[in-house]
Amino acid sequence: MRAAVLREGAVEARVIDDPVPGPGQLLVRSLACGICASDIHFMDHLEAGVDDDSGMSTYDRDVDIVMGHEYCAEVVDYGPGTERRIPVGARVSSLPVLSTPTGRKIIGQNPESPGGFGEYLLLDEAMTRVAVSELPNEIVCIADAVSVGLSAASRTQVTTKEVPLVIGCGAIALSVIAQLKRLGVGPILAVDFVASRRETALAMGADVVIDPAEVSPYQAWRDVAYGTSEATRELMTVAGLPGCVVFECVGIPGVLDSIIKGCERNTRIFSVGGPPEGDHLHTLTAKRKGINIQFGGGPSMQHWDEAFAAVGSGDLDVTPMLGRTVGLDGVAEALNASRDANGPVRIVVVP
After folding, report:
1. Which of 117, 177, 276, 349 could bridge to 48 as Cys pair (CB 3.0-4.6 Å)?
2. Could you tell me if 178 and 220 lie in one domain?
């Protein structure tokens, strides 16, 4: 098959062996696959996996790895021991995890679990879901990114007495915003330096957008949550001030720490950014403020299924997030373009 192959830190399109489905696996043809920031983190930060003893993500510079974990695909064949409950030709996707003889692997982050930046990949039959949708492949494949933000927004359980502040307006943050809107939470404040990202945040359901180059996000939050007049502040002091819930969706060192230093007392922070090179946090400041920090992790199967259904049905419209499409020969350039915050939220590979 042809694939955009990562080796020795570079990506090039060439011919490699077709993957062979093992027990319980499906061979599928990639129809569309989104480029995620975690693809870039994976290829740029070899050191990030040194302390990860899960074995789910393995970057060996000396072997071929086919990235891509946000895919829409078509069933081609079955491995041994499969139930064959999904017909050949069905359009599918799955939580990007594959069971292998050496354990569970993230699809697109191991030599033995190739991703959607190639013509073919392998899926676990048990986790594969049929796309009950007439929407284009490029939209269906965004469901995995949506599942991360949807899961974060759902697990945080923002109450009617809290006002959310979303830092960063990439794909995950936009999905957080969309799910908060679906849950009836608001007003939703979104922060990004890039005007086009702020516009997309409004399209996905944000009520207020903030350029941090012009105003402190935390002052802007206070103005919205507490009001600007003294009379309003006094009234709210008696009734109880709203709480702050911050979603950190940037993944650059220093951002989470800046939230700790800038946010209100008793803020709840849900961090899904996770810079691969690590970060330094002023934990004493966090302690004095009584801040609660929860780190995201991936979505549950339930939340993934919910996102897949919401995107496929059109209930959660992801079209504002979509940029251009590229073929396999354009993946290397598209990965570089995805590093630019001024670029589209999602570039989609169509093998």
Report:
1. 276
2. yes
